[in-house]
Fold each of these.
Amino acid sequence: MKANTAMLNDDGVSARQTAFFAAFVLPIYKLLELPALLARFAAGDLLLPALIQFLLQTGVIVGLLFAASRSEKTLVERLEERLGKWSRLVYGVYALVFLFSAVLPLLDLEKFVYAVFYDTSPTLFSFAAFFLFSAFLCTKGVKALGRIGDLSLFLFLFPFLALIIMSLVEADITNLLPLFEQPFSNTVSGVTYTAPHFLDALFLLPLIGNLRFKKGDGVKITTGYVSGSLFTLLFLAVFYGVYSTVAMRKHYAFAKIAQYFPVLSVVGRIDLIFVYMLCVVLFFYTAIPLRNAVAYTVKASGIPSKTLLSFIVNLGAFLFVLFCNKYYDNIYAFFGNYAFPFVWVFANLLPLLLLLLGIRTKKENKENSHA
Amino acid sequence: MNTNAQKLQNELQTNLQTLKKLLPSEDVLTYAFQTADGVDCALMYADGIVNKELLGTLIARPLSTLSLQGLQSDDKSATVEKTLRFPELKRKETYQDAVKEILDGNTLLLVDGLAIGFIAGAKLLPNRTVMEPPTDVTVKGPREGFIEDVKTNMSLVRKRLKTPDLRFETLKAGKRSDTAIALCYLAGTTNEKVLKEIRSRIQKINIDIIPDSSYVAALIAPRPHSVFRCIGTTEKPDVFTAKIAEGRVGILVDGSPIALTAPYVLTEDFQSSEDYFISPFLATIFRALRFLSLLVAVLLPAFYVSVQIFKMQLVPLGLMLTIASSVQELPLSPALEMFVVLFLLETLKEASIRMPKYVGMSLSVVGALVLGETAVSAGFLSTPAIIIVAFSGICLYTVPDFVETGSILRWIFLIVAGCLGPFGIVLLSTFLFAYLLTSDCFDTPLLAPFSPLTKRDLRDSVVKYGMQTLNKRPKIFQSKNKTRLRVNDDKGDAYES
């Protein structure tokens, strides 16, 4: 008998799930390498470039929500209705964009795993196990993303707050003062170099795209995203408060931020339990662009077998990580120094193109007036 | 033409001969007698499952005083029917139906000159008495447990739900066992879609025998190969009725004391019937304790191994030194050592369940003292490993319904921790979360009410609110009838200070 996969909510994803996704899943990657990078460029002013990026992303998300609110149909339904067969081309582009957006999170995660989970050097293939999980997630529908959002409320919020409370003991927030000490060019460099860390609108696209918009959903999702941004800003402030001038050398920030909590010397690194809980969300986050890439490739190519595509995509990603991890710094420098205009196109303009769907056709106007 | 499908004949002897051919077994007996005017009659029944006293008093004795000669066929059968004062009396016209009834424990009465058989419900099946189930013992609360007889179990449910909305639908499954399966639900409360799905899955069962409800659970499960079950189980009628009242569908299987309930959510396993009879604060503490214990049971051996091999920072230095000193001369690697100790625990557990009670005591001595103590002193195993496995074993039993799944997961986590360390543990946890997130059974997500988040249902999950606040049925079961408790507006008497 075939498994019954019908869900509680026929609408696929709800606004609450999207808001939770924005609040509790999206910030996790920003707690990894971003704090050290921002400290390198903007030192005590590290909140400023982050704030600029958040404002930009919030604008894009509000734009997307506006487009979604213009009809009772979802953005995906309208895209397919308007473009017909050409919508496949759009899906193909998104599949490629998601593949590229997975590059840095995958490389970061590999380094993070080897640094945080092992005292001794692990085998070359240890990280390969991640792709088994990722391949599994790639076969799941968009409803899975919504449910990840719900679950992350528990897996992100409690350990995050615990780590922040533990690190506050050692944090000196005055390290952030005086504000605007760094030249503005540093802030700009910080903004451009860290652009690949702010693909939030892009990551929310599959969720917002499948959302059947109701009144009040826009406020919910925007509040969710703003909360997520505030979590990140709080973390950045505490991080710089703890590490100050050496912050730029403190990679994988969330795994280290609470390590100076006095009790840990007596009871052992119990902060790692909270770190491991956050890692669950991090693993989800890293696998999500691959899942999205598979989902859009299925739509673009019409290949019905998600399993096969998932296998191919994950095998490719594994080989990429295996062979390219030694070029980690070069890839980072490439994305930060040269590719940021493309990243901005991907992160901001491409999602915003869906605003065009917000413009009602004559037919839709007629339908609405009849209704 | 198949004999089974043929109709009964007028001649008693022909009927008896045919039925004897169809039921050649020696336990099927025939008792022949005559009416007052010499008309031949016969009772046919399966020995040992019929109340013979009732047959004598309510069938043979009244009929032996009756005169049937000269009556027309219709009058004859009506007279017989009037004479027999059985509350359960049916007419059957084919050999097939007659055979089915006899095998089901009923008695067939045949009268010469009548082409019908009377079925008298004089069943007397060997049953044990209703008692407290050994797998679900409570300190406070009802102690009755289901038994193997489906009728008794139905009566235990009816006793608690005296409403016309309580419906039983009896289905049959098992080609040879012809087992009765009673679907039990509250009309207007249960989700019709789920009920329809379960009914259709039971009707599709095509197996020769069903010895226990676990067969039904396995055969109707939407995800039969999953480590996590899709159907809840209970041996207690009070728990069963409470679940039905929440909007679930209950399944009672003849021959099994274990009742099934569906849909099932994972948090059910952390709830005990006692939680509803004690203070909600205490219930919350107990539930949190069960939840933590389960985590310890499943993850502790794996973490112990990964700490030793991959990540020593996880434990404080002093403890690490103690562990190091006790494992330094061991011939086995940490993973292999833990594997051996866990294997010993599982073996002892399995043996102690199967072994006769009087050998059990010696087994504990051999297991705990001889194997454990001597293995440590001989330097094969370390004391921390034995402590960890023993503690993990105890913790697992705080959630008895999760023991099977927990044991499997503990092995998997151990293997993964031995290969990949803490990374493997976290990754496997993430994988399990992803699996549970996307595993829906009977329209209900297993991880509910955490994901998808159902705020109202969180009141009876890990945290237990007071009864006054649990006034709505769980949203997750999509019951049409949402309210289960109407809170009285009367605030009670106000006392002046």
Note: The first helix of chain A runs from residue 15 to 25.
Amino acid sequence: FSEPTAMSKKMIQNLAETLSKQVKHFNKTETQCLIRLYNALLGDQTERKVGHGLDRGKFRNILHNTFGLTDDMIMDRVFRAFDKDNDSYISVKEWLEGLAVFLRGTLDEKIKYCFDVYDLNGDGYISREEMFHMLKNSLIRQPTEEDPDEGIKDLVEITLKKMDYDHDSRLSCDDFEKAVRDENLLLEAFGTCLPDAKSIQAFEQQAFQVTRFAGAMTHKYEQTLF
Amino acid sequence: MGLALTRAAQWTTASSGMGKLEITPLNESLLKEILHFVEQISARHPQEAKHVFREPLQWETSLQASDFTTEYDISGSCVQSREADGDGHPLLQLTPPDVSVRSFSQLTRLLQLVPDRKLREVRACLEANRDPVVQILGPSFASVEGEDSSTLRLLDKLKEDSQSGEAELTIKLLIILQQLDTLLLSNSVKQLAQEVRLSPAAVKRDVELLKSLCAAGEKKVLRSVCYTSDYEFSNGCRSPPWRQVHGEIAYLIIEPCDSEPLFITCSTAGVFLNAGVRHEAEGNAFDRRSNVYKDLVDLLKSKSPHFAEGINKKDFVIQEEPPTTLKIPHVEAVGVEAPGQTLGSYEHQEKNALKKARQQLAPNKTGGEKKFEPSLKWKCLGLPSPHEEAEERKMRRSGGSERATKSRSRFPKSESKAKPSAPGSPLPGPSFTDDVQTERRGDSHTDLPSEYWQIQKLVKYLKGGNQTATVIALCSMRDFNLAQETCQLALRDVGGLEVLVNLLDTDEMKCKIGSLKILKEISHNSQIRQAIADLGGLQTMVAILDSPDKELRCLAAETIANVARFRRARRTVRQHDGIKRLVNLLACVPHCVSTSSKQEKDMEVARCGALALWSCSKSTRNKDAIRKAGAIPLLARLLKVPQTNMLIPVVGTLQECASQRSYRIAIQSEGMIEDLVKYLSCDNQDLQKHCASAIFKCAEDKQTRDLVRHHEGLQPLVALLGEARNKELLTATTGAIWKCSISMENVAKFEEYRALELLVGLLTDQPEEVLVNVVGALAECAQRPNNRVTIRKSGGIAPLVGLLTGTNQTLLINVTRAVGACAADPESMTIIERLDGVRLLWSLLKNPNPDVQANAAWAICPCIENAEDAGEMVRSFVGSLELIVHLLKSTNKEVLASVCAAIGKIAKDEENLAVITDHGVVPMLASLTNTVDDKLRRYLAEAIARCCMWSSNRKAFGEAGAVAPVVRFLRSNDPAVHRATAQALFQLSREPNNCITMHESGVVKLLIPMIGSSDEVLQEEAAGCVANIRHLALANDKARYG
């Protein structure tokens, strides 16, 4: 590690070579850029943690500042969704895979991702309680109301009525998928967990601008995005 | 008893005056109670019963003097009691038919006299004395709502002069009466509490349940259950609207296993057997034939023992399911009736009645009248009278937002009237009243359709939710049937539109999309459109057209397409630069034909843009704006795509704009005719219609007509004549054929495709728009002689002549043209004459429209020419010649020319010439000679030539100064004018004085070249004229020089 830059360059190139084959939606150059960005983010972290990857706090900062997510709980869940091996750190591969969905995911991929985010306990179902938990801050509470949670409860019922196709009072992945296919707006039914078009564009511009081809590539992908 | 009478008793007219007590179970029990009280009072409170009333109770009685016993003084028909008060007035006095009574003891005795008519007397007494307490104790004790201080005052009085037994007695009596009042009220509450109320939903549930019992195999308890009507109104009722006002919900025919089929009426008051309502109910079939049961199960239990047995056995099975489904939810204890319930459903029924009455059972006259007969229940509710209701309906229709406030304000009003106001009223068990009240409040909510409340709730979440909640609420809202007016108006009335429009201003993409999706649906309603425009929604949506998100652009454009159906909205779109943006949407389409998802989306954007432009293109200014924004080449390019859903708005826009010349030229020059012709053969009638309509508008131009033929568009047009059922399509098609047939080459093609036979077939049973076009086409085609024969042979003459009696101006213009053209065929002429067609044409000369006049006059010409005895025929029309001469005063050139032509034909008959001369035709024709219009000159000259058959007329023309101007006609360039003028001059030159004038005008110089013309007639006439002049000169020379 005496000459990190030189080493890294070589390493990054090799890594990008391999990873770009494994991860969808990014070409080699883009992969390289994202790896470089990842390294840059890691660089700020304390030595001790570098070995494991990006930690929760760091990642949440990115979500908040770059992608405009606000809900703490959702951000935690997004972290969990990125952190596939559950080691509380995001490895470079997880980073790339996560961003692939985050930035350029197909509807199918996004459905899967959102469901994972919303399935708080990871049991494969979004239960009434989980919905309530996620929606509890979604309404302005009227202090005059007898039961301030009534609106939330009602909202949960509305959602169930709309999305629970098999009528088992909870949402399975199938339910969720069907509902979203029927009405795309329901993709982020329980809270924003994907960046909006503007922040995606901004992020990609920033991340890929270093490369010569970036402009062309971004343009190409923009087309698929819209 | 005052309060009980004012509140609990059910009076025929809620207002004051001479009300009658209804004969209802409730009133009956009230009366019995009062009767019992009066009978008992003498025994129980002998002191108080003797108390003399302040004022006598007076009423019209059925009692006769003969009814009275010897205790009374009877003199004739009058009766007096022996008992008298302090002043010596008798306590009972009968002067038939009136009786007045001044104490309870007398009252008691009176009632004992007629044991069989007791109830009737009490009723009459109460009807005459709405508040008997006033009579009994004095006006200060009148029953008043709220706090009643009379008792307290009395107590004070009692303290003041304790000697007076009078006051003490009064207070005792008052207390007795108030006890009675309380008793009555509490009894009536019990009564009311027993009443049941069914709702459509409850009936439906019951029927479902019973149906399931029918299906239960061998153990079935019923054979069949069915409704008499399959149609269900949106309020859930199945009975016709005029029965719904009686509270009837549905009719059932239930076949029990052990008896005849039962005809059952389910009404809000309960269920009962009717006199046999089947699918077509008539007359008294609706009458009640049994007791009223509280629900279907009860009725069946009593009518069918088998059912009762079966249902008892199965009780367990039913109770395993939610046990409540059977009865509980719909049987609501109703206090003084739920005011809103009736109101709500009434409103509903009204709406439906308007909409559906025609489709439903044939409107039953008596039923319709009955509708406005107030039902017993509503009376005490302060329900607006039918008149008020009607007025209100009017208001609601006229102004949207008024309705909301009005209907809202109505609820509290009716509620407060119907409800006894708790404070101060001496009701027992206040807690019970409270219950009734809260429940009733709940009731009045349920009377509006449940959607209303659900939508209101969702709107609340929209207002008070973050993005997530908003999106959920928006998605849920879309599950309502937004095409239904109830939902649309509910959404507006609860303030949902404002929120939806406001959401468009946010940055949240999803909210905007969700909101637009809803706005798109509901903007099909014209009131909603207005409201969206009023809220400034158009401006926002126009701004959204610039959004980078394609879905959003699509939705905004589609919603604009819906909203911009009225002028103000279209103007708003234009003024906010919307046209330009919409045209930009069209630009998305790539040149190459490819089906990538991106291009599909682009196409969708363009399609929505075209839809919006189509809506906007209905305003003239917008047409200009669309053209200026460069839409024409874009539309031309979109016209090449294969998708029908894209083509319809594109062609729709084009045909709408083709009313402007610049568009017609562009359509022609951009090669769009080829595409339009191509789509005439597609399989979508809408598209075909718009294409034909565009061709109709463009084919005014000759080049376009040629292009249509060149692209082989005529045959598909003829083929479309077969689609006679789609009137709009037929109108467009026939219009296109008409305009195309202006070119004779096209007519030849139409002959080839045998279009004329088809067109003649369309002369009957078609709407006027179609007729105008068909007749127009026939008129053009009939310019070719062989087509006249075709029209005659396919039987077209008679319907054409028949159409001469119409009123549509355009149609008349075309018909006169067509008839005129056909009249050139002698055989057709015979038919026209036989059908009195000439007279009809002649009467059209009186039509105020100059075009009709002119065409009628043109049509008359060939008629006179070809009719057998034309002179006689013309004379037979009374006042006809005067009429036509009179038309020479017209200012319209075409009218003048046509009338001159007709006069030329008429004057062939000498007798008629005499008549028109008498009507002063000569000076009138002479005054027209200054014209420079060649057409008029030609026919004018012809007419003059004809009129000169009479020598006196020749002279008269000369004297009127017509000769010199006619000579000037020769300077025209039109050979037809030359020929006619030569004829006229030849005739005029037979009068020597005219020759001199002509010569002076230099006629010879002008005529000489015409003698050398190739036109023989011209040659001859010109030569004749010159010869006449020469003869005169020779004669003159001879005379002078001998």
Note: Residues 82 and 98 of chain A are 5 Å apart (CA to CA).
Amino acid sequence: MIRLRGVHKAFGRKVVLDDFDLDVPEGATVALIGASGAGKSVVLKHIVGLLAADRGSVTVDGHEVGELGQEALYALRRRVGFVFQFAALFDSMTLAHNVEMGLRRMPGLSSRDIRRRAAESLELVDLGELGDRYPAEISGGQRKRAGIARAIATRPRYLLYDEPTTGLDPVTTTVIGRLILRLREEIGATGLVVTHDLKTAYEVADSMAFLHDGRLRAHGAPGEIRISGDPVVRSFIEGAPELMETMA
Amino acid sequence: MPGKTLDFVGATGRAAVRFAATVGEWGVLMQDTIRGLRAVRIWGKLVFEQMMRIGVDSVPIALFIAAFTGIVLALQASYTFTGAVPVYLVGSLVGKTMIIELGPVLTGLALAGRVGASIAAELGTMRVTEQIDALETMAYDPAAYLVLPRVLAGGVMFPAVTLLASALGIVAGWLTAIQLLDMSTPEFVRGLETFFVPFDVVFSVIKSFSFGLTVTSLGCFFGFRTRGGAAGVGRAATSAVVASSMVILVFDAFWAAVLL
């Protein structure tokens, strides 16, 4: 289980998270929604220890992330797959080598195992034929899927998706949404999907959390969020800034 | 007037604090890099590749610079010595200058441009495209994976390239002397041997070793702290070259004061 309690994070004078709480229960997929720049990606980076909270608690499986030593942090990261917004593939490597990178840090895997599991992961995202291509030689949607393949290669317990559908056309967005659902079935990982794409959020999430002004503004099942009476949530869902202005 | 003085003092203080903070950040990265030495499995296979990129690929530009430096040294020495100093001392000046000063410094400055900018731009791009974050999420130590192989390769290859460049500079000076200055080969060699001491080579290696560590570590440092997309990558590359060049010249004076 991932749990954040009272997390505060500021960059200079800009407060991004202010007493932020979130629970991601075992086996569930939670969509964290909110406006661009609200701090959703910052939440993900706290979970894997890429950022440290100024105050508050971030725990994964009961371990306080900020208090882990280097080896314990690496052990935690091996249990977490991270899908980056723009895939963050290593452009000097083929897709297969990209996927193999995480596997090389897993103890007890032979070179043959690593190659086999990388190929399996690429197959899972329907990129089995493109293992020898470089990131620059494939489309944006394929890069996203390759990023997902790299994240799932270690068969992680948790999968964190950072804006998995940003910049994709509607059809590819649907493909990625279905892929997230399929991977949940096949890998069974607990998921946290950061997005401002409501269609994807409704489709893949068991529950949704709405981040606004650094705090958890709303939390509930997709159906509950969809009919929320909170003007801030409604403004976001309907893409209607005038609702916010009314409230102000 | 007191207000302007206070502004000046304040601005100087803030600049000094920023400089000290930057040096401190570089120190932390180097500490992480040294700690990364334990992770041989991560960096071991990457050092050879970096030696090729940093050293072997830099040989043409280093040799080009050294050859022309050797030619100019011979011509200028002959011009300066005419009628006053025995002409065979052209060999002394070319040899001594190439080995202990111009070989290491010109190679260091050329490689600061080529290698330092390249490392800063590469790592800077990796930073802004989250590739370094991706490494960390896959349980890699970025200092061990990215910095250590480059710094080790720089420490090994800068002296190698410098020795090669110095040798070619001397050969170019010799060819110039025998073709254009009416000197004979025995005369040039006599001059070369007159003031040569083996320690000159050691001095050259120590200097270029420190230049190698400087250029690669500063390239990595400015690459790692890149912010702000393409413009940030450009700034990182520029900062790496400027800082490396300045530190090379400071080290040049330092080693001369300490070792000569």
Note: The radius of gyration of chain B is 22 Å.
Amino acid sequence: MKAAAARGLSPGGALLRTSRLFALPAAIPPPPGAISEHTTYKQSDTATQAFPTHQVITTLSSSRQKGDWGLKRPLPLKSTTKSTNPMLRVKAIDTIESITDFTSGADHGLTLRKFQELSLPLFAPQHKNDVRKMGLQPKSVFEDDGDVTALDSLEKIETRDVRWKFGGPWLSGMNTAEFKRWLVHAIRPKRAEFRRFLKAKLAVELLQPARERALDNGIEENGTELPQAIDPDSIADEQYNLYLRKLRSDLPELYHMVGVFLDLAPLQPPIQWSVETASSTTEKEPVSHTLRHIGSPYAESGPPPTHPSAGLSYLRTATYMENHPMYGPQLKHTPVQARVLSPRRPGRYDPVVGVAGFVAKTPRGDSISNQKKSKTHLHLERLDPSIAGGAKIWVHPQHAEITPIGQVRIQLADARNEDSMIVQELLGEAKVFGEVKQPEPAPTWSAENIRKRFSRQLYTSPPVMSSSDRYGMGAHSLGGKGYST
Amino acid sequence: MSSSRQWLASALRRCQQIPQQATTTRPFSSSAPLAAFKSPSEQLAGMFTSHKKDNASSAASAGRSSSVLQELLRVGSEKGGINASGAVSRVLESVRSSSADLKLSSESHAYVRQIYRRWTPGEVYAPRDLNPTEMRRWRRDRTPKRDILDVLGVNPVDNYRNFSLISEYVTPLGRIKHSKDTGLRPVNQRKMAKAIRRAIGLGIHPSVHKHPEILLRSRLITPISPPVSKSNA
């Protein structure tokens, strides 16, 4: 294989090509710090970041025992062989001190695994301020019309309301300093190009009425040709200036043209506009160009920096049904436990929970966790130090979305008592029908217990493989009681 | 008169039942006065049954907030003033639940105050982020690494009327903060100092404390800690 890959290359090139040096992708830039990080001084450099910037690597256990992680040099065994989850993040393959700089990558690696266990679909952001779209089910990021990036200039204009990738920035997300810098460095050099763009538009606009007039007069039937396309360069400066003046008085139209020229991400119009257009039932009213982009799900908070799924999940919906061996098909998916990271604080801080390693808001609206007498509500209101390992509540993750700064927001709903009972029954913590089984006291390590346990395992343990007289159906073949100490 | 005597008898019976339940539900109490505080109904029953005797538990509870209510109840029951049946048990129930509630919430508050990190939705956490060492890092103040005025493109001299901006760069005693605390570069630090001096000179910003609007706001959002029970005192 190596020889085949290196055949057409120079010896030096082949060496680099087959080198393990190029196996790791370059690190992506870290999550942008929020503006508040410059004003609030409380932060930690060592906290887990909102998304991984380095590739997380793993290796087989046999290779791990030898220190072989597929890198340039074997890694020290003392710090890499003890972990239950062998995941590493290589910061530098080879530093000037001749060492491989690595840390544990289990934080993001396990978070990804836990997220994939939730089997959540990723949706485009929901409309929060648009009254017309508030109740609509959010769309998957994998819808065919929106999930296209290879577009020509005409398709770019047509798909502006649905696509997620834009050439230009999202202006609402820029602060004054960024905007000024962007004007100087990115926009000023494009003046001549924009002039040509406008002249081409003007040429089309001038040609259109002449062509219509010709068609109305039946020139084509008489054998004469249609008026030819106007050369944009031939347009006089005076005519162009007049056109520019007219455009400047029609700001929505001008904004639309600038948006098309720079491929700007769509902006949400002010809220009262959308309310007015929503209340006006007549279709004949002229709709301003700014209102064209109201349909984009990314107009409110900006387009995401990656693909809006971030490669976390490829599910389109969550409309699949789970089956329980005893109770049959289930209405809801299996609920999961959410850790109460911080209960409600007096003041303005709402409770926050963590699901699969992601911080999430608690379920809103008229749900169980908001009913005053429910146990869930009490966990969210108070920190109970007597709960070992911290309080947890049962929730239904609904879907996830990627925010403009690359974070994952998981939408939660409350789990019904029935669903959480069924899960707890599977875990052996509750019983749906009949009495609740009291948890067994932890086994004490007395000499008698240890002797009993090991003697059972060694001498009287049933065979793991079933014999022909039971065919795997007998109680012995399960081998349950012998090991359950 | 006979009806009020009947009511008193039934109330006494009810009160005698309550401590029995209380002792069964709370077999282990941490300390004697604390346990007495946990179940004020018990003290109350003790007062009803033996208020002529020198009861140690009722003497211990004399300084507590619920003792006033209990005294009132005792006087009222002696006079036969409360006619509604079950009123005593209702009041007792509310006293008991509210005192337990208060204890739990003050305990919770004491723990929640030690969660220094303000979690925001979308962040990722690993078990490591929940340990005390990591949590302590969110406690301490740090100098901002970048000049916030440059980041935002704000000219402080234009913002001398912006009292929330001015108050941000003034200590609680009204002095201009040092650049090592503000993290501003020298040019912006001078501009900010000029804006503060200008605001004070114009008389639109106080010179010895932050702006009253800011003080009021911080007062409103600062949690008022619940009173800690002084049962052990």
Note: Confidence is low (pLDDT under 50) at residues 1-6, 278-293, 475-485 of chain A.
